[in-house]
Amino acid sequence: MKSEARRAAFAVRKLAFARGQGQAAELLADYLSGQSGKVLAGYMPMRTEVDPLPAMSVHQGVVGVPVIVGPAMPLRFREWGPGVAMVAGAFGALIPAEGAWVEPQVLIVPLLAFDARGYRVGYGGGFYDRTLAGLRAKGGVLAVGFAFADQEVSEVPIDGFDQRLDAVVTEQGVRKFQ
User: What is the pTM for the complete model shown?
Assistant: First the structure.
């Protein structure tokens, strides 16, 4: 079920990306302004992912990006800022060539689809679910999905490992989940 959901979600996101990102990054920056001073981790956008870099660039605090350290392992996060030297990491995602490791208090999460319960479909590696579970076990993290509104589906297929998002920001606004 999840692989079919991923295939369909890629197609929807591609169409939404082609229409443009609108004010999504501005809304994300506004939402994150309430998290000033906290360690924020975002991601380097690939393919048709909505771009969080404008919001990450104006964050008042340390910003990190994910580094895949191995299969079936949680992500680690290396400090990032505009102008930092980047290299290709696993799956082609850009990562800082060097820098301090940081532990996020706020995590911007990419996704293929999300539902009204706050669940998401990712790429299938389980990296974000493992990472969120570990951070939550240590005392918490605010998990913020970033997507196009068209990526919402009626119900995401889930299993016992899936971690719920706390909110999703789209070009249409912020959705918070209980």
Answer: 0.94
